[in-house]
Design a protein that fits this description.
Elements lengths: L2 H11 L2 E7 H9 L3 E2 L2 H6 L4 H12 L7 E5 L5 E5 L1 H10 L29 E2 L2 H17 L12 E2 L2 H9 L1 E7 L6 H11 L7 H12 L1 H12 L3 H4 L4 H5 L2 H14 L8 H13 L3 H22 L7 E2 L2 E2 L5 H13 L1 H5 L4 H13 L2 H6 L6 H16 L2
Length: about 400
């Protein structure tokens, strides 16, 4: 197929439209339920008050806002693909944003002063929002006096002229029409967000998975946060906050239940693999998570909770590396039927794990400076060989 033919084929899969709407029109659509913000997106991405204040500043001084990208659902409602923080910041400031868990309106915090508009400090959209925040602050003073800073005297509500200027501000909308290939919406999301400083690869991957199958993502979260997985690959609080526990699980699922193409970028492979896994029927996902649970349980039964650490002087100690995850855990999961057929599966697993750590291969695969794309083309096959014996 020629380049021209490939371009023509890809273009037919993506149908778009572009136009502008006022912020007031967008707010009305959200209020009427015609714009959908996935609840998990609201939980996964949240700006701090400084960034929110800078966005309101940009609107007021007429700095053009980047377009929001939306996907047209079969119902003709819109689902936000990109622009969540811009849209939710405006909705929150105007007192329209709903909490994804309770359905109640979110009470905004007071804005802070900005580079061009230091007088934004303490600003609220309307009196009722200012009063609601003042009451929440008083409750905080009663329960957390040591953390309380009284700013209520500096709070104020912006006047009607400024409100009208904000509501009349136009924002570009890029619409991915419903006749487009559904896969294009998370392709677009990934491309728009890749390389940004606001989210790492896994945070972007989380949203791609949510777009495809939110219940699949919930299963991932539940498993990654529970024992024994959380103890098998332990992480600190800050690391978990960056979704590194989900990153570990994503890579395990991708390499264990799909086939890696040599030379493919690891992060791109894992994202595409998870999207494919999340797109499978529910019974297929249930079977996969059951196999994952049984495999991890068997590994822990055989070698203890430190099973992925190097084996030295009769015990499993030291740092957990990608090598041990890819060879031991992924290898075990890929060959689980063979392992389970053994007379004593736990004894077999323990023997194979110890055999690996006592071999020269463990040093070769653990060498520093090996790129992931080079490493996995050897580690995953080695794990399959190890557990298919």
């Amino acid at each position: 197929m020629s380049l021209e033919q490939e371009i023509d084929k890809a273009a037919r899969q993506v149908s778009t439209d572009a136009f502008s709407l006022t912020i007031g029109e967008v707010v009305n659509m959200y209020r009427d339920g015609d714009i959908k913000i996935d609840p998990d997106f609201q939980r996964l991405f949240r700006w701090d008050i400084e960034r929110k204040s800078r966005l309101i500043e940009s609107i007021l001084v007429r700095i053009p806002l980047p377009s929001i990208f939306v996907f047209e659902l079969p119902s003709s409602k819109w689902e936000v693909i990109d622009g969540l923080q811009r849209l939710s910041t405006v909705l929150e400031f105007l007192g329209e944003l709903r909490d994804p868990d309770t359905g109640e309106r979110v009470t905004p915090r007071a804005l802070v002063g900005t580079q061009y508009l230091p007088s934004l400090r303490g600003a609220f959209w309307a009196d009722e929002l200012r009063a609601a925040r003042t009451e929440l602050d008083r409750q905080k003073r009663a329960t957390q006096p040591d953390d309380y800073i009284d700013n209520t005297g500096k709070y104020y509500s912006i006047d009607g002229d400024i409100q009208r200027a904000i509501k009349r501000t136009k924002i570009g909308v890029q619409l991915l029409e419903k006749k487009s290939d559904p896969k294009s919406k998370f392709d677009l999301f990934q491309r728009l967000n890749s390389g940004g400083i606001a989210a790492n690869d896994q945070e972007i991957r989380n949203c791609a998975i949510v777009m495809v199958n939110s219940s699949f993502f919930e299963k991932m979260k539940s498993y990654a946060e529970a024992e024994p997985f959380s103890k098998l690959i332990p992480l600190g609080t800050r690391s978990i906050a960056k979704s590194n526990h989900l990153d570990n699980l994503s890579k395990i699922l991708a390499f264990s239940f799909t086939d890696y193409t040599i030379g493919t970028d690891i992060e791109e492979f894992v994202t595409n693999a998870l999207v494919e896994l999340a797109s499978r029927p529910a019974d297929s996902a249930d079977s996969m998570f059951a196999r994952l649970k049984d495999g991890v349980d068997l590994l822990v039964q055989a070698c203890g909770i430190n099973a992925l650490r190097p084996y030295r002087d009769g015990e499993f100690v030291g740092r957990i590396g990608r090598t041990s995850v890819e060879i031991i855990l992924v290898g075990l999961l890929k060959c689980f039927d063979n392992v389970r057929s053994k007379a004593d599966p736990a004894a077999f697993v323990r023997q194979q794990v110890i055999t690996f750590w006592q071999s020269d291969d463990s040093k070769k695969f653990s060498a520093a400076g090996i790129a992931g794309t080079d490493r996995v083309q050897f580690t995953v096959p080695h794990g399959i060989t190890l557990f298919s014996a």
